[in-house]
Amino acid sequence: MTDQRQGQSGAAALPEGKTIRMGLIGLGAMGRHHARVIREVEGMELVAVADAQGDKHGVAGGLEVQPDVESLIAQGIDAAMVAVPTYLHEPVGLALAQAGVHAMIEKPIAATYEEGERVAAAFEAAGLVGCVGYVERCNPALLEMRHRIEAGELGNVYQITTSRQGPFPARIADVGVVKDLATHDVDLTSWIAQSPYSLISAQVTHRSGREHEDMVVASGRLQNGTIVNHIVNWLSPLKVRETVATGEKGSFIANTLSGDLTFVANGDVRSDWDRVTVFRGVSEGDSIRYAIAKREPLRVEQENFRDRLWGKESESVSMAEGVHALKVVEAVLESASTGTTITL
């Protein structure tokens, strides 16, 4: 991954300004929100929906609920939003690619790294736009952090840490906390630092009686030398969503629950004591909480997909990036099971 934006700009898949006939498959916990947002985004029209389990949230409106992806495709759609359970991402994605339908697939891109590679390869071979729905990249605090780091306001980035903790989400049935939640932190960390992972080490626990892990602590290094740490669980009564990037000029702290970004600058350390003057440390300097526009991340995500379809500059997440994130989270699980550090 030499360029985090690879595959996100170039020739238009659809004429700019053309209303995009959107299909949505999966009308569950995430699909219901996508249905609302697609209807709100200028340039998109929701023309078809599908879910084998029906429309339990009542979001179809006047649209007939189709039973499967083939029936969805038959409605003459230009692009599709895929919000089915993770284990269905590969068959649904491959069907869309074979039919020539552009798609954004909810994270992770597929259930396994191998499946993700097949999905990404199918869209690339067909010359289609394929994106992955990592909505955290559209959080206003992280967008602001990313742009300010790119502008050099932090200097060299030394370390990125994330904490994503909270109660168990009832919507989850087919994966553990690593593939459901930690994949967000892996993706956003690589995106913020503009570098893929080079190695990872992790520990997990199983405390809820489920087949899958429910807590993970992972640490590693990116190819550019940035060290990283992730604390993720869904067995905490305290809901925390925090990303901290520390560099040569200070630290950015993003609270993604509130969408707030704070910068704490390095202060000066001066001492007349000869024995400590050799230590190059920092102290707490000025602190700034930025006033930033706060738009709904899911809407920003769909607008990015629309812009990518129109061939405009876009922050959409490429399938190549989605495959890398999946490779890293599988390395997290491998590390935890073998007690070794995994080199990527």
UniProtKB/TrEMBL annotation:
Gene3D superfamilies associated with the record: Dihydrodipicolinate Reductase, domain 2 (3.30.360.10), NAD(P)-binding Rossmann-like Domain (3.40.50.720)
SUPFAM superfamilies: Glyceraldehyde-3-phosphate dehydrogenase-like, C-terminal domain, NAD(P)-binding Rossmann-fold domains
InterPro entries hit by this protein: Gfo/Idh/MocA-like_OxRdtase_N (IPR000683), Gfo/Idh/MocA_Oxidoreductases (IPR051450), GFO_IDH_MocA-like_dom (IPR055170), NAD(P)-bd_dom_sf (IPR036291)
Highest taxon of source: Bacteria
Pfam family, one: GFO_IDH_MocA
GFO/IDH/MocA-like oxidoreductase domain boundaries: 143-252
Keyword tags: NAD
Gfo/Idh/MocA-like oxidoreductase N-terminal domain mapped to chain residues: 20-133
Record's protein name: Gfo/Idh/MocA family oxidoreductase
Organism per entry: Ornithinimicrobium faecis
Source species taxonomy: Bacteria, Bacillati, Actinomycetota, Actinomycetes, Micrococcales
